[in-house]
Specification:
291 residues; binds geranylgeranyl diphosphate
Length: 291
């Protein structure tokens, strides 16, 4: 069921991106950009946005451009994350990573172009959002992507390699590296739903918890996953001396922490009643997933 939902949503976002890029001037970077963002990945962040849209009763038409923007940021981060100067990975999503396919310089430029494309998509005059909403969403996306978000988290992740870090430090790093973009997914949808300041903040915090849960599941897959299903090399975290909760506390204790976190998230979503059903199902998938 959830797989069908993911595939359907991914197709929707891919089509949006193909369409958007086809209206732009052609360039040498279009091919590596498409390689990085289209026809690959679960597009789970888009599904989270669309599920949150159902929960807050937002028309899907208003959300597709936001989904596409998030996928551009996410794909840029993966392209750069795979570079030799970062995590140095040759495979991603079951195919060669971008720098292996196109060379390092092109991968850096395609990643950077996806980062800027995200903002271009949101700022586009179409797509049913008011100027005030766009302004708030652009501000939030920049905050979640830059040094206070995923890039800052990535810097900590690299600096923490082969160092003894506390669980508090690890969780803070993972909240930035992975959680912040999920914070954006829920908070941006709340902005479009015209929610109050406090509701937006609270939903963002739930999003960040979902992102942390997603990262913990990613760490579990690195240990117990199947490389073909995961689409990238596994058992790398230990070799690289990555600071993860699993490496600090062991699999069982880290898993217990994740289960508790999931229960807490579901409890907070309960007040939205049956409108939260889809989002709750996606959260169950996040922790149980094998890809
Ligand atoms: C600014 C030069 C420069 C680099 C930035 C921001 C950054 C590098 C890296 C981001 C950190 C990162 C890759 C976090 C990992 C998050 C994560 C669990 C990724 C896997 O996400 P999935 O499973 O991937 O959603 P798919 O392939 O399904 O899209």
């Amino acid at each position: 069921m959830i797989k069908n939902k993911l595939i359907k949503n991914a197709k929707k976002i891919d089509n949006f991106l193909i369409n958007f890029l086809s209206r732009q001037e052609n360039s040498l970077l279009i091919k590596p950009m498409k390689y990085g963002v289209i026809s690959g990945g679960k597009k789970i962040r888009s599904t989270i946005i669309l599920d949150t849209g159902k929960m807050l009763m937002v028309n899907e038409k208003k959300l597709v451009s936001i989904c596409a923007a998030v996928e551009c940021i996410h794909s840029y981060s993966l392209i750069h994350d795979d570079l030799p100067c970062m995590d140095n990975d040759s495979y991603r999503r079951g195919k060669l990573s971008s720098h292996k396919k196109f060379g390092e310089a092109t991968a850096v430029l395609a990643g950077s172009s996806l980062l800027t494309l995200a903002f271009e998509i949101i700022a586009d005059e179409k797509y049913f959002l008011s100027l005030k909403q766009k302004n708030e969403i652009i501000n939030l996306l920049a905050n979640c992507s830059g040094h206070t978000g995923i890039a800052g988290g990535q810097e900590l992740d690299l600096k923490f390699e082969n160092k003894k870090k506390s669980s508090k430090q690890i969780l803070n790093m993972q909240r930035k590296k992975t959680g912040k973009l999920f914070n954006f997914c829920l908070q941006a949808t709340a902005i479009i739903a015209n929610k109050s300041k406090i509701e937006k903040k609270n939903l963002g915090k739930i999003g960040e918890d979902i992102g942390l849960l997603f990262q913990l599941a990613d760490d579990f897959l690195d240990i117990k996953g199947n490389m073909t299903l995961v689409g990238k090399p596994i058992k790398k975290d230990k070799k690289k001396g990555k600071s993860t909760l699993v490496n600090l506390k062991g699999f069982e204790r880290a898993h217990l922490y994740a289960e508790k976190l999931k229960k807490n998230i579901l409890l907070k979503l309960k007040k939205h009643g049956k409108n939260a059903k889809e989002l709750m199902e996606t959260i169950e998938f996040i922790i149980e997933r094998n890809f």
